[in-house]
Amino acid sequence: MIVMLDFDGTIAVNDVCDALVDEFADIQQLMKSLSAGEVTVAEYYRNAFAAIADKCPPDTLTHWLSTQPLDPGLTSLISWLKIKDVPVRVVSDGFDIYIKPLLASVGLDTIPVFANVATWDGHAYVPRFPGATEGCTCFCASCKRNAVLHGIPDDEVVVYVGDGRSDACAVQFADIVFAKGYLASWCTAERIPHHPYKTLADVQRILANILMRNQTRQRRQATLARRNAYLQE
Ligand SMILES: [Mg+2]
Ligand SMILES: [Zn+2]
User: Fold this and answer.
1) pLDDT < 70 regions, the chain
2) Helical pair 200-212 and 74-83, crossing angle rounded to 10 deg
């Protein structure tokens, strides 16, 4: 078994990227062109980083990050998974520049992070999308599908925990899905079986139950989806 965790709205209480843009730029204006379909998600991110650069250089960012709460069940879930010898992966369509420091702030800097990258060149943030794929047209800059599939053995049971639009693509390849918010409604509409949850403490409790009852098995639709994705790439 391997556990994939979304970051914004899942590990972090807020969508940290949205909160950041909202704090240091006019998010309504930037979002308008995204919802109107005038820009892609990657272009939105480029515009947003350009808009926050002056007011939020790296030291300001570091300071502001301390205002961003993480799910209270996070460290307990991660320690419990470690005891159970279950690997964890953070899969995000957000950015390493806030994900890594926030994880480090609670001693979780060794968890592998699959996310977009932003570097500060002395004047501005330069966003890059190493996980971007032409093979998928879902609503994201870097489709999480590849992060979910990367290096996963055929018999692995993939657990996915998320909340948003960028998780919708990924959960089709996951065996055990935990969903809240937008993702929960989407899973219901698409008939993807999922466990609704509010906090990561719920995830730990439900997952412990599944393990105890020996109910960790692969989902047929997910196995087929993984196989098809491998054939396509
Ligand atoms: Mg999210
Ligand atoms: Zn996708």
Assistant:
1) 233
2) 30
Q: Which amino acid is at 40?
A: T
Rounded to a whole number of angstroms, the distance between the first and last alpha carbons of the chain is 23
User: Quick one: which of 44, 43, 2, 52 has its CA closest to 22?
Assistant: 52
What count of Cα atoms within 13 Å lies in the side-chain half-sphere of residue 99? Answer: 25
CA of 15 from ligand 1 middle (Å) equals 6
Cα separation of 107 and 229, whole Å? 35
Ligand 1: distance of its center to the CA of 226 in Å? 22
CATH topology of domain 2-13+70-116+126-232: Rossmann fold (3.40.50)
**pLDDT, tens digit, 9 for 90 and up, residues 127-153:** 999 888 777 778 788 889 888 898 899
And the tokens for 185?
């409604």
CA of 189 to the centre of ligand 2 (A): 18
Among the bound ligands, name the one nearest to the CA of residue 7: 1
Give the span between the Cα atoms of 233 and 231, in whole angstroms: 6
Please name the amino acid found at residue 49. Answer: F
Q: Residue 159 to residues 13, 41, 107, 170: CA-CA distances in angstroms? A: 20, 26, 23, 11
pTM: 0.95
Residue ranges of domains in the chain: 2-13+70-116+126-232, 16-65
Distance of CA 77 to the CA centre of its chain: 16
